[in-house]
């Protein structure tokens, strides 16, 4: 009995010793990892390479929607960057797609208090006719108010939704509000609206409208749609509280069938199977 107890005590002692050694090793490994991460993080903050890379595209090329000349310049930019980075077999692979080309974007309040509104057309929107649209607005402070409107209640009007996007750290406010942009135009059209405007899905207060794509619903009329800058959406709320508001809207986006586009490809040669980078 005493012999068994002796071996049991020795076993616990060895296990404790081993556990202490493992804990010390883990602590040292964690400390090393934290130091390495901190060093890499500081290096990244001090190294302008990432910023310079993005800035050279966004500033040097600018807007580059498919089908535009800027898109072609972006392809040449990408090839040059891959070559400079040492990639092999750098080349572009052509294909065609249906391109949406942004055109003129003008919105004005007309009447006794005329003023300009900052707007940008939603991606995929149809155009107004050449003369634009002039109509009274129907303003909804929430998207649910629009959905509650009866069919035909918006006949001949421009629907305006000014619901605010929630500012949340994880970005979920944007996802929750995206239906206002994507489905809103079709829902307004079902109720007779001739055009659709929404407060930009943005939490800033700058007079810069934020665009994004819409999704026209099958069977619903397709009406022109655009996003308002946040200050302009709030201005419409104040004016609508005083009485009827009329807006003149001109949007001239176009669609280009079979627009040329390219994938830019580079290879990193491995011992057996090359890696492709796009």
């Amino acid at each position: 009995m005493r012999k068994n107890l002796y071996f049991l005590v020795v076993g616990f002692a060895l296990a404790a010793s081993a556990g202490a050694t493992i804990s010390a090793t883990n602590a040292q490994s964690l400390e090393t990892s934290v130091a390495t991460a901190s060093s890499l993080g500081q290096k990244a903050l001090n190294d302008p390479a990432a910023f310079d890379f993005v800035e050279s595209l966004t500033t040097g090329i600018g807007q580059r929607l498919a089908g535009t000349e800027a898109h072609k310049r972006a392809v040449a930019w990408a090839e040059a960057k891959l070559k400079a980075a040492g990639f092999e077999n750098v080349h572009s692979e052509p294909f065609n797609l249906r391109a949406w080309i942004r055109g003129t974007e003008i919105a004005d309040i007309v009447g006794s208090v005329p003023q300009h509104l900052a707007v940008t057309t939603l991606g995929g929107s149809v155009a107004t006719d050449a003369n634009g649209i002039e109509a009274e607005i129907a303003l909804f402070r929430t998207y649910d108010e629009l959905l509650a409107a009866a069919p035909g209640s918006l006949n001949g009007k421009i629907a305006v939704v000014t619901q605010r996007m929630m500012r949340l750290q994880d970005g979920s406010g944007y996802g929750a509000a995206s239906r206002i942009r994507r489905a809103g135009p079709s829902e307004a059209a079902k109720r007779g609206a001739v055009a659709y405007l929404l407060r930009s899905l943005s939490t800033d207060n700058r007079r810069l409208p934020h665009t994004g794509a819409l999704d026209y619903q099958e069977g619903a009329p397709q009406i022109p749609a655009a996003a308002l800058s946040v200050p302009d959406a709030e201005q419409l709320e104040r004016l609508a509280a005083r009485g009827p508001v009329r807006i003149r809207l001109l949007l001239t986006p176009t669609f280009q069938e079979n627009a040329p586009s390219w994938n830019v490809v580079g290879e990193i040669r491995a011992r057996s199977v090359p890696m492709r980078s796009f």
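The mean pLDDT is 89. The domain at 103-252 is CATH 3.50.30.30 (Glucose Oxidase; domain 1).
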